[in-house]
Amino acid sequence: MAIDLTRRKFLKISGAATVGATVALNLPDNFLLWAEEAGLVKATYVPTYCEICFWKCGAIAKVINGRVVKLEGNPAHPNSRGKLCARGSGGMGLLYDPDRIKTPLIREGKRGEGKYRKASWEEALAMVAEKMNKIKQKYGPQSMALFSHGCPTDHFLPLFSAYGSQNIGMPSFAQCRGPRDVGFELTFGENPGSPERVDMVNSKVVVLLGSHLGENMHNSQVQDFSEAVSRGAKFIVADPRFSIAAGKAHTWLPIRPGTDMALLLAWTNIIIKEGLYDKEYVHSHTNGFRELAASVREYTPEWAEQETDIPAAQIIETARLIGKNAPAVCIHPGRHTTWYGDDVQRTRAIAILTALLGSWGRPGGIFLATNATMPKLPAKPYPVIPTPPLNRGDFKFAGAEGVTQVIRTATLTGKPYPIKGWFVSGTNLMKALPNQQATLDAINKLDLLVVVDVMPYDTAMLADVILPECSYLERHDTLVVGKGKMMNVSIRQPVVPPLYESKPAWWIAKELAKRVGAGEYFPWNTYEDKMKSQCALWGVNYEELKNKGVVAFPDTAAPYFTATNPPEFKTESKKIELYSKELKEAGFDPLPRYVKHPQPAAGQFRLLYGRSPVHTFSRTTNNPELHELYPENEVWVNSKQAKALGLKNGDYAVLVNQDGVKSSKVRVKATERIREDSVYLVHGFGTTSKELKRAYRRGADDQGLVTRYAVDPICGSTGMRVNFVKLVKEA
């Protein structure tokens, strides 16, 4: 319906020349945009950075009369370059979602019943602090654990360090990129970064191993992917499913799940045998080439064909394509790399192949991070904590982010010491950790579970106290120092004031610190005060940063090895470790070796999972704007197998895993675009939180079917693609 409204009528509705906040919130965005175009109101533009996913794209919010009506990419920001993906554009859906947590809530019924009463901030914070102090007094500060992800970590990690606990768990390590980072660090002395430093715009060949570019919409990387395609780069995509990336590929390799290592080792064998590696680079910058060459001789293309289901001729053809285009070859290190329990060694194989091609620090490969750093503000040292943390467990190479399931196990067993409280922020553990029943059992043993979040996700609805965080569009937050091809600093600042009774994480951390005797570790009055102090120390004009959203430092650019920027590796030997003495000394294979993984039995399928271009895990399934685009997931099953099971497109089915766990019903997508031995779900659906009114029970929860996992002995990550399911037609 067209809007016909005169200036006089508009001002009559608003009651003044400026629409009040309550009125503005109830006016349609299209109406406000029309009013702005008609000159009836004036828009303001506020730069910030997004947190619908972890990419932290620079965004500019268009605000009319106190309401955000549009989000656009900041042209000056390297992660967005003037564009936002659908998720980023849907940030307003998070801000204005009526299902948001609006006030502090205290549980009244049994855990999991969803019965809560509203509380004041004073009551809620006092209750949390009182229980934290009791746990500290009775069991010691180490008996509180922090689970976190994203920017809130920068506020709650100092709180826990001051409180006296080092027990930190981040699913971003143990359930995502941990093995990748460790594999590259063992090889090059550093990891490929986040965002990954892939130089696809200059690549002649790009290799994607289960990396769903185009579906995991990492903004700048997808832009580079598109540009590489348009420039004629050849893509080799090894994936059991014909993904969006496979649709743009020169070669799609429908690999048998669990055999990626076989393909990598066969490629390595061919490239060494045919002399396609960069001899000068390998001679000058690597250790262990002779041992590597000897170890891969057994991995012939004919052998790999039997393991991978990829014809030997195609393995040879793609190996030659890779070798002959080096060093401008990008073997993408991937992101979610927790697959089968030998994931550090698999990513080591990727890193070793990258080194053989001379692609590290060269155009078209993986470019170098700037060595520039920003100094830290002076701060009071944290107390020395004598009790060792659980977050690394028995895993020498676990990252500082911690091994989440070790904390969960200690909570269940009370060994080596009890964990009695969890503080959860920025992560939905019930949708992140494998074996949901174990997570639930651990939560039921806690004296305290606190959740800080914007939305009432599954984990929040199990908490004793829920603290409503305001969305990223309503708060100041960490100044982000980016280290792409040059260093930059980005600002997050409030676009609109916080709605309801929500508060920013920095305020919650500061207020709790006062109540647990750690207030001196938060000496600033507002977070903006801290940001201004940082900018003064860094030589950054704060007002310029506020106005532009990002400030770059061009003199820090050094992305490639050159005569004036010679190769430097942060390993003990100062060279690339093809053969890892560090792994050898720790009792592990110094070189990657192939290990067979179990395959599905007759009537079973391997459960695979991935992303949607319009959703971020379980974060956005209730988002009004993004839910409309993709309201529920589907189960992909090969057409031949679907027919044999009496299933067709649009039918509903139930997935039953090897342990008898059933999913909720899910629509069938019968397609030729997936192998016959696998099924595929988009991750994050099937929420059990009734407070998420759009998303409740929509689609199937893949994580609920992940009852088994394979722990990587090197870094402690959880390989979760080891589960098998049957499909049962839903009546």
Layout of SSEs?
Elements: H1 7-14, H2 21-26, H3 29-37, E1 43-49, E2 58-64, E3 67-73, H4 86-89, H5 91-95, E4 105-107, E5 116-118, H6 121-139, E6 144-148, H7 153-163, E7 168-169, H8 171-188, E8 205-209, H9 219-230, E9 234-238, E10 251-253, H10 260-273, H11 279-285, E11 286-287, H12 289-295, H13 301-308, H14 312-324, E12 329-331, H15 343-356, H16 404-413, E13 421-425, H17 429-432, H18 436-443, E14 448-453, E15 465-468, E16 480-483, E17 487-490, H19 505-515, H20 527-538, H21 542-548, E18 550-553, E19 576-577, H22 581-585, E20 605-610, H23 624-629, E21 634-638, H24 639-644, E22 652-657, E23 666-671, E24 678-682, E25 710-711, E26 718-719, E27 724-729
Parallel strand pairs: 6-7, 6-13, 8-9, 8-12, 9-10, 11-19, 13-14, 14-15, 20-24, 21-23
Antiparallel strand pairs: 1-2, 2-3, 4-5, 4-15, 16-17, 17-18, 20-27, 21-24, 22-23, 22-27, 25-26
Helix pairs in contact: 6-19, 7-19, 8-15, 10-13, 10-14, 10-15, 13-14, 16-18
Explain this structure.
- This protein has 731 residues and is of the alpha/beta class.
- Among the domains are: 7-95, ADC-like domains (N-terminal domain of TfIIb, Single Sheet), CATH 2.20.25.90; 175-370 and 561-585, 3-Layer(aba) Sandwich (Dimethylsulfoxide Reductase, domain 2); 605-729, Barwin-like endoglucanases (Beta Barrel), CATH 2.40.40.
- It has 24 helices and 27 strands.
- It has a seven-stranded mixed beta sheet with strand order 5-4-15-14-13-6-7, with helices on both faces. A six-stranded mixed barrel has the order 20-24-21-23-22-27. Strands 10-9-8-12 form a four-stranded parallel beta sheet.
- The protein is globular and about 70 Å long.
- The two termini are 41 Å apart.
- The model is unreliable at 1-24 (pLDDT under 50).
